[in-house]
Design goal:
about 160 residues; 3-stranded antiparallel beta sheet; 5-stranded mixed beta sheet; 2 helices
Length: about 160
């Protein structure tokens, strides 16, 4: 009797799991919660100029715009054979862009001259300088740092499309 009950329960469980339709939703994973948009192909071509675009989320969490004296958002971009941390990116030869409008949009161009595995290392430095408060001698500065590392494939020649 007990054996029959165990077989019956096993059969019900097997039917339940075999009949259940599993839906897998394939959404691209965000690179970082502060990155709203990042457009750059995974495959680039040797010595070909490629456009890239990154949108940084400029929304402030707990800070009122009335508290801010100045804000500077820099994008540091470099390529290397390895993944770099924030300080390593800032010490390397790099392209530096400043968001002069304050909307978090960065457009850049890449031209890579090596056909090997390359890592695009991006550091975003968001510097907020607060307005001084009454009777306050020191200036308060808050810096947010975001790092993105993306593996790039560089192909020697662009393949011709067959018609």
């Amino acid at each position: 009797m007990r054996k029959n009950k165990l077989i019956f329960i096993s059969l019900i469980i097997a039917i339940f799991f075999s009949c259940k339709e599993i839906e897998i939703e394939s959404k691209p994973q965000p690179l970082h919660e502060k990155i709203l948009n990042f457009n750059l192909p995974d495959t680039l071509y040797f010595d070909e100029l490629t456009d890239g675009h990154l949108t940084y989320n400029v929304d402030l969490d707990t800070i009122s715009p009335l508290e801010i004296h100045n804000r500077y958002i820099y994008l540091h971009l470099t390529v290397d054979k390895k993944t770099l941390a924030f300080e390593e990116i800032k010490k390397s030869d790099r392209l530096i862009l400043l968001d002069t409008v304050g909307n978090g949009n960065f457009n850049f161009k890449l031209r890579l001259k090596k056909t090997e595995r390359t890592i695009l290392n991006i550091a975003i430095e968001d510097i907020i300088i607060f307005k001084p408060k009454i009777n306050q001698e020191k200036v308060k500065i808050r810096t947010n740092e975001v790092v993105i590392n993306k593996v790039m494939v560089i192909e020697a020649v662009k393949k011709q499309r067959e018609i």
